[in-house]
Amino acid sequence: MMLSGTTRALLLAAARRTAPRPAPGSAFAPAFAKRAFSHVHVVSGPPRTRISLAEKMAHGIVQVIGYLFIPVWVLTNLKHYRGELEE
User: Fold this and answer.
1) How far apart are the C-alpha atoms of 45 and 23, rounded to whole Å?
2) For residues 77 and 81, which has the higher predicted lDDT (pLDDT)?
3) What range defines the domain where residue 57 resides?
């Protein structure tokens, strides 16, 4: 039995949508899937670049200031927020 061109195209399109796809990077994956897949290599071990203690301390101080700035600001202006201003 021969199918018309339109029917055959519709059946092939439906088969492509429901067919299992090969994993990206496999030998059966299409070329565009291989190009879109990036390999990320994570190697455990000692750090490649040593960070000085001074830089770690400076970064830690900046983080602590950043974490505490808004709560300290709110607590210092609590009377203002409540409407209890002293004049």
Assistant:
1) 30
2) 77
3) 53-82
Computed over its alpha carbons, how large is the radius of gyration of the chain?
Answer: 31
44 within domain boundaries: no
Number of separate domains in the chain: 2
CA distances to 32, 33, 34, 36, 38 from 27, rounded to whole Å, are 12, 11, 9, 14, 15
Tens digits of per-residue pLDDT, 52-75?
A: 999 999 999 999 999 999 999 999
Tokens of 84: 């209890």
How far is residue 31's CA from residue 37's CA, in Å, rounded to a whole number? Answer: 10
CB atoms within 10 A of CB 70: 9
User: Is there a domain that residue 26 lies in?
Assistant: yes
Q: What is the pLDDT of residues 16-25, one digit of tens each?
A: 766 666 666 5
Q: How far apart are CA 41 and CA 37, in angstroms?
A: 13
